[in-house]
Amino acid sequence: MTIDGVAASGKSSVASGVARALGIPYVSSGLLYRAATQLGREAGVRLGDAAALLTHLRARPLRLEALPEGNRVWQGERDLTDELHSSQVDAGVSVVAALPEVRAWVDDQLRALPAPFVAEGRDMGTNVFPQARAKFYLTASARVRAERRSQERPEDVDAVEAALIERDRRDAGQSAPAPDAHVIDTGPLTLEGVIETILQVLPTPTA
Ligand SMILES: Nc1ncnc2c1ncn2[C@@H]1O[C@H](COP(=O)(O)OP(=O)(O)OP(=O)(O)O)[C@@H](O)[C@H]1O
Ligand SMILES: Nc1ccn([C@@H]2O[C@H](COP(=O)(O)O)[C@@H](O)[C@H]2O)c(=O)n1
To answer: For a substitution probing ligand 1, which of 6, 89, 148, 155 has the most ligand atoms within 8 Å of its CB?
Structure first.
């Protein structure tokens, strides 16, 4: 199944909860875009330079570890995960994610993972796993999302809201609900409420 949605709509928290209830892993595609961005920044590669970025990424392959409590990204023995949710990465990641070559690099890694799993991101239901048996798309107002996200960032809520709106604008080309997705406004719901809503509409597995 797939869970897509706008920035900070609750995708990874919800995917983790749903996956745990189902006893399967979840995979956070955004982490791979974030890792590509962070590694490009570190190496001084211009973020819009797909060829230079991919040469750099292919020389040091990444591994996405689909832990139920939170995915982690490794490069060899180095765990990059805790560096990937900074405001600097937030600000650069949409440039990297707009590159078709980087999208193909991420999609290949996701499609190589052993099923079943819950995939979360922007285009999981539309592009990467169009055959998924259940698809969800999470939304909430920018203000609600900023109030939640500002608990996790040093910036104030207005600055967080402006950054979320800008990231949504830049991501709009690859972030849309699949025609067969259930769209859920998480604004009035608790995290547990969103997870429960999804579990209730999941189709029963057929024999
Ligand atoms: N329904 C909800 N009610 C209250 N808080 C929520 C809800 N959903 C998510 N949150 C909180 O909002 C914050 C953002 O959630 P999360 O990181 O899961 O979003 P995301 O869509 O994966 O974000 P990003 O797009 O930046 O990766 C977290 O602090 C999470 O606990
Ligand atoms: N399927 C996806 C997932 C992510 N992106 C890009 O990565 C950024 C970070 O993703 P988060 O889920 O961690 O917010 C996001 O802003 C997109 O630019 C994507 O393009 N496709």
So the answer is: 148
